Amino acid sequence: MQEVLRNWINEVQYKELIEGVNNCPHKLLGMHQIEGGKGIIVYRPQAWSVEVIHEESGFREELQRIDDNGVFGRYFDKLEFDTYTLAVRYGEDDVVYTNDPYNFEPVIGEMDRYLFGEGNHYEIYKKLGAHPMIIDGVSGTYFAVWAPNARAVSVVGNFNMWDSRLHPMRILGVSGIYELFIPGVGEDAVYKYFIRTRDGKELFKSDPYGNYAEVRPDNASKVTDLENYNWRDKQWEERKAKLKRRDRMDSPITIYEVHPGSWKKHQDGTEDGFYTYRELAEELGDYLLEMKYTHVELMGIAEHPFDGSWGYQVVGYYAPTSRYGTPQDFMYFVDYMHQRGIGVILDWVPAHFPKDAHGLGRFDGEPLYEHPDKRRGEHPHWGTYIFNYGKKEVENFLIGNAIFWIKEFHIDGLRVDAVASMLYLDYGKSDGEWLPNEKGGNENTEAIQFMQHLNRVIEERHPSALIIAEESTAWAGVTAPVGMDGLGFLFKWNMGWMNDFLEYMKLDPYFRKFNQNMLTFSFAYAGSENFIEVLSHDEVVHGKGSMINKMPGTIEEKFANLRAAYGLMYAHPGKKLLFMGQEIAQSREWSEKRELDWFELQNEKNRKLQAYVKKLNEVYQMYPAFYSNDYHENGFEWVDGSDCENSVISFIRKGKNTQDQILVVCSFTPIIREKYLVGVPALTSYKEIINSDAIEFGGCGKINRNPIKSKKIPCQGKPFSIELTLPPLSVMMFKFSTRKKKKRDQKK
């Protein structure tokens, strides 16, 4: 009867199996109908024997060795079962029991493959990758990977001795997707994909869609189940789901930017001293609540090999880094933040990826995720690859990834890194290093279409999400809707303001009067995009110095300058972002290798600056004038921006009604100015709500305890005015109303 089996075996497929290049092993291995009976073929090199077991019927038969290559098989005239267990013996006391992996149908269907090929399978991450599941009553893990240029792919791991011969995968049609269900493989199993290329190379790759990875420097993927976390943020998610684009634009947003590995460290002598996600959630969550921030933005969460990249060179786009714990631990972090009323924003890097051998680069032996032309596919000065945005499957990989974080991890927003490098084909490149587009220009039309596609889909599926562009040029329409030919981002980092403002603040106050435009120019274009005013990590690294040490003057003047800087930042139109450590005036430049210099809070000046930032967050959220009209021309009005000689500016922030208005007066010289007249629009009282010179914030105490009544003295183009004493290097804010009192109010 074995002759029937031998005659059935396709010699080409058999030879390819032995040579490790068979991409359709299911056609040979497993159980098959043969001439009215059934044949079972198993490939187990180094096995002594293989036995087929069906416990329910008591069936137990040993397969025969077909040859010395490790192929076992047997033809049966009649079998009453379709599922069975294999007992593979490798020695006297070494027996492995498993269901036959080549006896299961694909999980990925034809529609999945079609949508993926069209770039529209927005939850493709549920099909590709490694997913623990039960099929036909059998527990195991389903593996699927896209590798269209590979000659053959197999799964290797600690469950099969990393032997590429044991679990070859099958390709599904012309999709380029390889898949295999491996019974018995469960959570925490360590694996990679073994890829044999067309030119005979052998590659070991981590899973592009993997959800968990080994702790660096190890880099294999690990099986995990993302479905078993019990979320407790239902109220937060329900409230968030009701928000639309306008709601988000009109809401108060103050963001604390954090590098998780260096905010705080354990001082216990361990190599890294990292807080776990769960430890960080509780300490950071309490701190954010105390400091009155609305959001935390996390650097470097997606898996990355090199600590010094801060997470901006990603290899595991679908995996929160294992440096701080498991994916479920990260879910706990987000969940905890939401229960404290704090939103979570992630840095997201679709602009480039590193060339590490286990990553996306040359994934199946050829350019797959990166553009094949070096002039389009590499950043020569960064040493990284550029995604091929014009390839639909790559576009799907990235858009699916954005949705993955928002949906599966309840992330509230993504700050998209290095958008300028995506928009311009010649970004960071010299002549000869880039290739013009089809019209001869330097715009990357494929990347533009990708970003529009991304933002359109997010707006449709997750309209509450904050999608933020870190875009450093004057590209028009970054936050304009896609329907108006914009890129469709909700917010944009205001890099121009950051650069001009910091250059102004670094000037000796004597020279500021010659550079007033550096202070005022940003107000002219504040409504051109939906800006976030940022003082980010970029400004306190690479020799740029800390924020406090950018300020000129004596130590007292440095602190006064910094208070004035933060005060103007919070009064300026736009949402707010401050990098960790800046709120305590850390004097050293930030480094990912150590925790923040919390010991500086032993200094009274640092403690008082921290209290000042807390008060700014509180005042900002208390008065809608600071945020509800950020992107409307009615939200801002100049009083005077032209007093260059005194380096003083004054303006009004306006809310939705006449009762909600704030007068802001800023003085950027270390001189007390007595009886300084400021024009105001209404004959009413002006109540000071915050003064950076208050003693509680480290100032001299020249504040206005009582409301100031305006007088009918025209000034600076306004019909009325108030007389102020301007403290040195200060920002003052006054609440007032232009509502006219009704007669019955006057009688009262």
UniProtKB/TrEMBL annotation:
It comes from the Bacteria. CDD domains: AmyAc_Glg_BE, E_set_GBE_prok_N. It holds the Pfam family Alpha-amylase_C. Its EC number is 2.4.1.18. Keywords: Carbohydrate metabolism, Glycogen biosynthesis, Glycogen metabolism, Glycosyltransferase, Transferase. One of its GO terms (cellular component) is cytosol. GO terms for biological process: glycogen biosynthetic process. InterPro entries: A-amylase/branching_C, Branching_enzy, GH, GH13_cat_dom, GlgB, GlgB_N, GlgB_N_E_set_prok, Glyco_hydro_13_N. It catalyses: Transfers a segment of a (1->4)-alpha-D-glucan chain to a primary hydroxy group in a similar glucan chain. The keyword Transmembrane helix does not apply. The keyword Lyase does not apply. Monomer. Belongs to the glycosyl hydrolase 13 family. GlgB subfamily. This is 1,4-alpha-glucan branching enzyme GlgB. It comes from [Clostridium] polysaccharolyticum.
